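Re: that backbone. Tokens:
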């Protein structure tokens, strides 16, 4: 299983970024995928998840600003982040859970600063 996140960067408050997570090594279309983030000194928190059927769920802190989506033809899950705030600054990780086993990709840094 491989999960490769990309698309992070430095953006001003109010700006937007789109993260991508390219997946391989498992039957992507039949699996739920998740985005987590971890700020310095903080625990890793769930940001958004999407089921195999496309149902999305979000942390309260990002509802209305972030959108998770998936492209089964490209084995890729996306996180569109709008109206970014300084408190969104973190390393963002793509995640897949299979029973008690979790798979993580390398994260991508998102920094929101003026």
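Recovered sequence:
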């Amino acid at each position: 299983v491989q999960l490769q996140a990309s698309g992070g960067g430095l953006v001003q408050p109010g700006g937007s970024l789109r993260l991508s997570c390219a997946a391989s090594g498992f039957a992507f279309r039949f699996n739920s995928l998740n985005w987590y983030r971890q700020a310095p000194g903080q625990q890793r928190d769930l940001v958004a998840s999407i089921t195999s059927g496309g149902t999305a769920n979000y942390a309260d802190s990002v509802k209305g600003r972030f959108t998770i989506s998936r492209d089964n033809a490209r084995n890729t899950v996306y996180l569109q982040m709008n109206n970014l705030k300084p408190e969104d600054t973190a390393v963002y990780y793509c995640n897949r859970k299979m029973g008690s086993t979790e798979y993580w990709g390398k994260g991508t840094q998102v920094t929101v600063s003026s």
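The chain is about 0% helix and 55% strand. The two ends are 37 Å apart (CA to CA).
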